[in-house]
Amino acid sequence: MYPGITLFHLTIPSYWVMALIGAILSFLFVHIRKRKFHIPGDDVTHIFLFCVVGGIIGAKLLHLLVALPNMLAHLDVMNTQPDLWTDYFLNGFVFYGGVIGGFLFALWYCKRYRIYFLEACDLFTPILPFFHIFGRIGCFLAGCCYGIPSSWGFIYPHETVTRLPLPLIEAACNIMILMILLLFEKYCSPRGYHLPFYGILYGITRFVLEFFRGDSARGICLLSTSQWISIAVVLGSVIWMIWNTKRLERIKQQ
Q1: Contact 145, 132 (CB under 8 A)
Q2: What is the pairing mode between strands 4-7 and 10-13?
Q3: b/e per residue, 30-52, with b = 16+ CB within 10 A?
Q4: How many beta carbons lie within 10 A of that of residue 171, not counting itself?
Q5: How far, in Å, CA of 123 to CA of 153, rounded?
Q6: How far apart are CA 161 and CA 83, in angstroms?
Q7: Dist CA 57 CA 80 (whole Å)
Q8: Phi/psi at 28 (nearest 5 deg)?
Q9: Residues 242, 230: Cα–Cα separation, whole Å
Q10: Which residues contact 38 (CB under 8 A, 6 or more apart)?
């Protein structure tokens, strides 16, 4: 693992380095994609920035919400060790929270400036798995989100057993999801289906992968928080697809 990268005597967390690389390449990717859509370049940039801000806020808030029971259970210890408070507030982000936050911020921008939201969703959806590839590589370098003990894999910091490199497996899954989305867009993609299609693909993938997570319990009723969110995402995506299909049928009849 490489939790930190040292540049000019300054150590930067590997996760943030990968997140920054992913964000820069995602910005370039979305501007290459905009040629196929009817959204002005300035608005594409603004929506991207809103997604970044909303994503960071949402990812942090959901992390704090998930960590709240543990924080309350160890409140006496945390009050004697202020560094623990700093660690909770500066480190730890939940991907689903980032997606929700970015979605809400983008929705507000599109409503405020009269941008066709479904087209914006179609434009930006492939950016999600694209950025997530770099995010999961960052997780691997940081030594977090590791998998269950396995006969093959890596020995993580502070561990004595070999564990599945689950972040790398999820990065590979995101590559496949990205390729499927691009093929879907090229050959059979009416307007408004990109985001729910991604929601179904990633929701199912994440639900399965969570069974192989090896870090501490992060949920209730035998399922992790991310698994419960995955179920909601898949159901919501199916409802979105049904709604969009009926919407397109009404347009054809007019």
Answers
A1: no
A2: antiparallel
A3: beebbeebebeeebbeebbebbb
A4: 20
A5: 36
A6: 28
A7: 27
A8: -65, -40
A9: 18
A10: 116, 119
CB 58 within 8 A of CB 98: yes
Residue 220 has, within 13 A of its CA and on its CB side, a CA count of 4
Tokens (6 digits) for 226: 């991310």
Question: Helices 194-209 and 166-187 meet at what angle, rounded to 10?
Answer: 160
Close Cβ partners of 166 (under 8 Å, ≥ 6 residues apart)? 145, 146, 147, 209, 212, 213, 214
Please give the C-alpha separations between residue 145 and each of 9, 27, 56, 172, 209, in angstroms, as whole numbers. Answer: 28, 26, 18, 15, 11
| Tens digit of each residue's pLDDT (9 = 90 or more) over 149-168 | 888 888 887 777 889 999 99
pTM, to two decimals: 0.90
Q: What is the pLDDT of residues 2-28, one digit of tens each?
A: 777 777 778 888 888 999 999 999 999
At 3, give phi and psi (nearest 5°).
-65, -20
d(CA 110, CA 118): 10
Per DSSP, the residues of 69-133 read: HHHHHTHHHHHH-HHHHHHHHHS---HHHHHHHHHHHHHHHHHHTT--HHHHHHHHTTHHHHHHH
The tokens describing 46, both together, are 């603004």
Contact 15, 141 (CB under 8 A): yes
pLDDT band with cut points at 50, 70 and 90 for residue 78 = low
- The predicted pLDDT at position 103 comes to 97
